[in-house]
């Protein structure tokens, strides 16, 4: 017995099944996959067209089979055809978009051509195809006016805008991503969690040379204002990363500590500056003055 369910129901079921599988298997974060990855929209559109094409082909095969019957066989077929779920409005729209006659009336438009029993219908172009063709013409005119006459923007400009936006996103990511910090982007950390982590790293790796209170031993004193290779977060970070003076300075820690860890320990050891150690080592190097510190204005004294 012929299935009485409407063809559009199968299209919707398969379409939403594919849509659901895409959303389940594609990791798109908080946004739906069709929004995060526009290529999925094209894929769903192709799937929809294929489903409609398969449905039309199956219906065409049924129509051809019906037309190949004799008049008596057609009448028997129509009489025996079950009356299932009807969707009259949908059928009318479907027939109008196709621009074809119902199967029962196709006898009126059969041409006289006969090729080995295969006969041809004198159908007009489907209205949906004609409307789509007109839509491409309208789209082409708008595109021509916008991009070639008005000069809205071109691909070079679009590329430059996208690159500039990407650069801003990269810089923002580098600024907030601690593991990507380097000597140019490192900043003094003041959060208690960062200083606590820096203290833990210092106590494991630095105490043997600089003492627990930063007074210095094998390594220089960290409590005074003198620095051998420069003070401030950037210089200290670079010294920890690249090591001290050749042959007699501290080893490079960049192969052992992560950039975020070097930023934490550098920020922690800077807290020793200005404190009093139990047994401070003599000052080494030069007094370092932060060039970025605001300069004090001198007011002339009037007699």
Walk me through the structure.
The chain is mainly alpha-helical and 303 residues long. Among the domains are: 7-109, no CATH class; 192-287, Cytochrome Bc1 Complex, Chain D, domain 2 (Orthogonal Bundle). The protein is built from 11 helices and 4 strands, in the order H-H-H-H-H-E-E-H-H-H-H-E-H-H-E. Strands 1-2 form a two-stranded antiparallel sheet. A two-stranded antiparallel ribbon has the order 3-4. Strand 1 (110-115) and strand 2 form a beta hairpin. The relative contact order is 0.07. The mean pLDDT is 80.
Largest sheet: 2 strands, antiparallel
Helix content: 40-55%
What is the topology, as strand order, of the major beta sheet? 1-2
The secondary-structure element order is HHHHHEEHHHHEHHE
| SS elements, strand count | 4
Q: Could you give the distance between the termini? A: 118 Å
Please mark out the parts with pLDDT under 50 across 5 or more consecutive residues, or reply none.
Answer: none
What is the global morphology? rod-shaped
Structural class assignment = mainly alpha
Mean pLDDT over all positions? 80
Note the total helix count: 11
What percent strand?
Answer: under 5%
Q: What is the radius of gyration computed over CA atoms, rounded to a whole number of angstroms?
A: 40 Å
